[in-house]
Amino acid sequence: QIAVRACFLGFAFGCGLLLSTGRSAWRHFGWYMCSLSLFHYSEYLVTAINNPRSLSLDSFLLNHSFEYNLAALSSWVEFTLEKLLFPELKQITWLSTVGLLMVIFGDCLRKAAMLTAGSNFNHIVQNEKSDTHTLVTSGVYGWFRHPSYVGWFYWSIGTQVLLCNPICVVGYALASWRFFRERIEEEEITLIHFFGEEYLEYKRKVPSGLPFIRGVKVEL
Question: Which pLDDT score, from 0 to 100, does residue 220 have?
Fold first, then answer.
């Protein structure tokens, strides 16, 4: 099953590359296909390098959630319909380039966070502290408390800017912001439980990295 998923992502990347390098009107969608397939494949690859004990079929994040799959499907539908009705909207190369840069920045930031955290990184929020758990505050964690979420946030919005999907740009921004706000609060409760005052001091010094998200409130 791992090989099947890897081959599928490789095939999607290859198709995207062909669309990207040709003169097809679907060139920007080719950029999107390359970005999407590379994101999911690298999630598995970096986890295999970083934390092989947590590696599983779910590490590809292809089955992240029903909502995630629905969002992807919605973006494809919007792109196709708008391409048929307003083809000039999908030919704004400078805007698609901005989206591509957002995608590259977001994915690089997320992978840098995963590599910096090492075995401390896990796709699933941990409720029990293991002997190897340490509080990572160096590298990109010195910029943001949650760099992997910041990266994913801008990556997801960037995919829709790349596709020139105005409806999904707004929808992705709102849905991603709400998801990460809840996820960060849940995770920080656990981190405070794990590391106590050490994490609270870190929380005071370093921002979450996401707009208008401060994390869990601590009553003093």
Answer: 54
